[in-house]
Amino acid sequence: MKKICSMLGLLIAVILIFIPQDASARSFFEHSTTTVPAGQTMDNLYVLGGDADILDHVTGTVVVVNGNLHLASTAKVDGAIVVIGGRITQDEGAQTGDDILNFTLDTATQNSLLIGGGLVAGVWAVQLTCSLLLVVIPVLTYLIGGRKAAGWIKRQPDLSWKRQLYLGGLSFIILAAFCTLCIVTIIGIPLLLLAILLLMIAYIVGITSLSYLVGGFLQEKWVPNEWVRLIIGASLIAAIANIPVLGWLMILFLTLFSLGTFTKCLSSLRRRKPREIR
Description:
Blueprint: H1 2-18, E1 34-36, E2 41-42, E3 45-48, E4 52-54, E5 57-58, E6 62-65, E7 69-71, E8 76-77, E9 81-84, E10 88-90, E11 100-103, H2 108-155, H3 161-184, H4 189-215, H5 226-241, H6 244-277
Parallel strand pairs: 1-4, 2-5, 3-6, 4-7, 5-8, 6-9, 7-10, 9-11
Helix pairs in contact: 1-3, 2-4, 2-5, 3-4, 3-6, 4-5, 4-6
Keywords: Membrane, Signal, Transmembrane, Transmembrane helix
Transmembrane segments: 121-144, 165-187, 193-215, 227-245
Organism: Paenibacillus chitinolyticus
């Protein structure tokens, strides 16, 4: 029963995170004409698969993909203008910045190839960067931390990973509820940044610990070297994370394991402080 309640709470927390909190925020993926009416100022405008009509002021960047851009005589754009797969129509009197980029090919097929190729290249670049970070972060943690980090990493495989996942699930529910509360209240935005920072630290701790744990499965076939063990474990995690279905499960497992490991570290540090005072 406790496991069912934990899973339901985890599912509710995930749904709350991905629900839009601002009803006035418009989607980036408009498939019709998006208009900036007169008397309204926007920071940035992103339109995918539709046209854009600007009648007033845009202080930031304007990006239109697979659509046309119309600048009225009263329009003013301070930032860069990027139009891919469409045309730019500018009325007399419209004010623009220095950077205007327009990538338009002759046929719709060529435009689709340009857009699709750019998206695929961007996804590959992000995927490659994340894979490298999964390998580099544990090694840097072991290198920068010195003896303390090495001793802490060696103690982690002795802990129960099931207990770490359970602690991670509870921590995830608490963190998700806290982030939702911070998003609703404007005052809580600085606390939200602090929560994101703690989550990043938890990821660093969890990736390092899990890499050493996974590398230990191949310890019999390799020389028992901490560097080799850590790099092999991190490489295996990065390889599994790139598999379409298993990758998402691996990310979920890594998130819960990282939060559980970080929570365990905080509790152990809290227990050691009274002993040091005595």
